[in-house]
């Protein structure tokens, strides 16, 4: 279920999917999660391409134990490479290839709209099963737009106040951007923009309140917005769980999103903090390979399975 | 969005939810809106949290009370068949929320008795009255302690009317409300009927 109308490309032979891993905050394990999920999907027999879309601080290659690649997404954006396939590199793992980020090119974090569309279209046209995007921190449009075009939008949080706060901000920014896109006239766009400011004079604090406010003036527009909200279904992954008491937080986030934001999120799974993981990171090796028996590795396998089947954790009662 | 406004939606439950599910959903929501809880701390203003807690308490007071729940179902236009009336009290003691200890979880309760309709509380209720109601429901003190997180010792003091050993009225009121709620009684009525016998603070 793609968010944008499919580009006029030849019909894909397979059910190609774009997955993205976002989270709003740095240092919460997005890149490692992307790399290990990608490896697991490849092991499940899928043809996978990882894209380091963290254009400002790319490090996906390091997670995979690869040296800084010679060709990166920057080469494609700058048209030093004509085809996106030209910047694809092998990872050494069967079925898993990488488009590395542009760590050498700081300006890449602010790529222009046309460049972004070109990247998105070419990524969509790749002949693979899953394209897995590692998004950067923050809520810049470049990051959010990648998140929004994804078939599977994974929102990473760690059980810490700052991460949860950024996670909510990320969801709100993404949702407001979607709502703005379907605004039928300028008045509604202005209302959406106003709602982004928590102290807006209209007193709109949540997307639900925004839609209710729009409904007063334009029920048709409000209906469109409700449909947009229903189509937006981020999937939470709670990473670096240190205490089993943190596991239910994913359920609480889903519940809070439904009630207070009007967002139908899902709880895809959790990954425990695991010393084996950082030992592997220190050796610049992927813990999935280095410590396959580690609890975190098993949790990644479970997560990959759940995400590819569209399953989520239920409260169990 | 009116479906968000039912007591069932407040607790995230289906109208067919069992008594046990009501309990678990209630505990889940309490934790979610708890003091400084991660999932709501940065999302909601203090007043929103208070409003949410009040909504949850109301929903629970209705849904945990078989009689009130049935009346409520009727008011929603739900047939009495949609929710099984007079559901048994949870057959297994509620699990303590993950991570809050729970290492010494007691054996499951003896098989539950059908839960009789809650008696109308008299103006004045004694500890012995509460004990009778509890025993008529086949619930052990330990079971109440698990649900309410009130120590067994304090529950005993309450039932034995050992007034001198009870905590200050402000805490006692909370204990009694939790205790009443756990028995499917009106929490406020429970507290007030019990405390009606106590010397007023000014007289002490």
Summarize the structure.
The complex is a heterodimer of chains A (317) and B (204). Chain A has 317 residues and is α/β, with parallel strands linked by helices. Chain A is built from 13 helices and eight strands.
Sequence-ordered SSE layout with sheet pairings:
The complex is a heterodimer of chains A (317) and B (204).
Chain A: E1 17-22, H1 30-43, E2 48-53, H2 60-63, H3 73-77, E3 88-90, E4 96-99, H4 113-125, E5 130-135, H5 141-148, E6 152-157, H6 161-181, H7 186-196, H8 207-217, H9 219-231, E7 235-241, H10 249-261, E8 266-272, H11 275-282, H12 287-290, H13 295-309
Parallel strand pairs in A: 1-5, 1-6, 2-4, 2-5, 6-7, 7-8
Antiparallel strand pairs in A: 3-4
Chain B: H1 7-10, H2 19-32, H3 38-41, H4 46-63, H5 66-76, H6 127-136, H7 141-148, H8 152-159, H9 169-182, H10 187-195
Helix pairs in contact in B: 2-4, 7-9, 9-10
Characterise the protein shown here.
The complex is a heterodimer of chains A (317) and B (204). With 317 residues, chain A is α/β, with parallel strands linked by helices. Chain A is 44% helix and 14% strand. Chain A has a single domain (17-162, 233-309), classed as P-loop containing nucleotide triphosphate hydrolases (Rossmann fold, 3-Layer(aba) Sandwich), CATH 3.40.50.300. In chain A, strands 3-4-2-5-1-6-7-8 form an eight-stranded mixed beta sheet, sandwiched between helices. The model of chain A is unreliable at 1-12 (pLDDT under 50). With 204 residues, chain B is an all-alpha fold. Chain B folds into two domains: 2-76, Orthogonal Bundle (Helix Hairpins); 127-203, 434 Repressor (Amino-terminal Domain) (Orthogonal Bundle), CATH 1.10.260. Chain B has helices spanning 7-10, 19-32, 38-41, 46-63, 66-76, 127-136, 141-148, 152-159, 169-182, 187-195. In chain B, helix 2 (19-32) packs antiparallel against helix 4, helix 7 (141-148) packs across helix 9 (169-182) and helix 9 (169-182) crosses helix 10. The termini of chain B are far apart. Residues 81-116 of chain B have low confidence and may be disordered. The interface between A and B is medium-sized, with 26 and 25 residues.
């Amino acid at each position: 279920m793609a968010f944008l109308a499919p580009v006029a490309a030849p019909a894909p032979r397979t059910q190609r999917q774009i997955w993205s891993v976002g989270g709003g905050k740095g240092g919460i394990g997005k890149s490692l999660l992307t790399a290990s999920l990608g490896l697991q999907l490849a092991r499940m027999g899928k043809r996978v391409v990882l894209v380091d879309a963290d254009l400002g601080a790319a490090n996906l290659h390091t997670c995979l134990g690869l040296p800084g690649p010679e060709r990166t997404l920057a080469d494609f954006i700058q048209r030093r490479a004509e085809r996106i396939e030209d910047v694809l590199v092998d990872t050494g793992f069967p079925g898993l290839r990488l488009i590395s980020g542009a760590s050498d090119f700081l300006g890449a974090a602010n790529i222009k709209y046309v460049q972004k569309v070109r990247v998105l279209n070419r990524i969509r046209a790749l002949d693979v099963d899953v394209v897995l995007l590692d998004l950067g921190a923050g809520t810049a449009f470049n990051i959010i737009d990648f998140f929004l075009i994804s078939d599977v939008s994974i929102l990473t949080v760690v059980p810490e106040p700052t991460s949860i706060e950024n996670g909510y901000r990320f969801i709100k920014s993404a949702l407001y951007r979607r709502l703005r896109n379907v605004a039928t006239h300028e008045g509604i766009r202005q209302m959406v923009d106003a709602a982004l400011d928590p102290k807006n004079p209209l007193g709109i604090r949540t997307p639900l309140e925004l839609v209710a406010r729009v409904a007063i003036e334009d029920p048709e527009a409000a209906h469109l917005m409700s449909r947009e909200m229903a189509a937006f279904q981020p999937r939470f992954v709670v990473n670096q769980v240190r205490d089993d008491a943190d596991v239910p937080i994913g359920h609480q986030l889903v519940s809070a999103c439904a009630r207070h934001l009007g967002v139908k999120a899902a709880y895809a799974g959790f990954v425990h903090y695991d010393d084996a993981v950082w030992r592997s990171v220190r050796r610049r090796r992927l813990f999935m390979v280095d410590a396959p028996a580690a609890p975190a590795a098993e949790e990644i396998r479970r997560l990959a399975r759940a995400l590819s089947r569209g399953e989520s954790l239920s409260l169990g009662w | 969005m009116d479906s968000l406004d039912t007591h069932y939606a407040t607790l995230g439950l289906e109208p067919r939810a069992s008594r046990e599910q009501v309990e678990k959903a209630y505990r889940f929501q309490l934790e979610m809106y708890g003091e400084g809880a991660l999932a709501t701390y940065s999302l909601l203003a203090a007043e929103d949290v208070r409003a949410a807690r009040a909504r949850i308490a109301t929903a629970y007071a209705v849904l945990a009370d078989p009689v009130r729940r049935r009346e409520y179902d009727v008011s929603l236009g739900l047939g009495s068949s949609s929710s099984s009336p007079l559901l048994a009290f949870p057959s297994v003691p509620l699990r303590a929320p993950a991570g809050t200890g729970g290492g010494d979880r007691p054996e499951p309760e003896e098989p539950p008795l059908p839960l009789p309709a809650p008696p109308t509380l008299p103006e004045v209720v004694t500890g012995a009255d509460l004990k009778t109601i509890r025993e008529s429901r086949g619930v052990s003190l330990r079971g109440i302690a698990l649900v309410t997180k009130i120590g067994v010792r304090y529950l005993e003091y309450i039932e034995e009317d050992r007034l001198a050993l009870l905590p200050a009225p402000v805490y006692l009121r909370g204990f009694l409300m939790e205790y009443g709620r756990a028995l499917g009684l009106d929490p406020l009525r429970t507290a007030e009927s019990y405390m009606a016998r106590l010397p007023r603070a000014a007289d002490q």
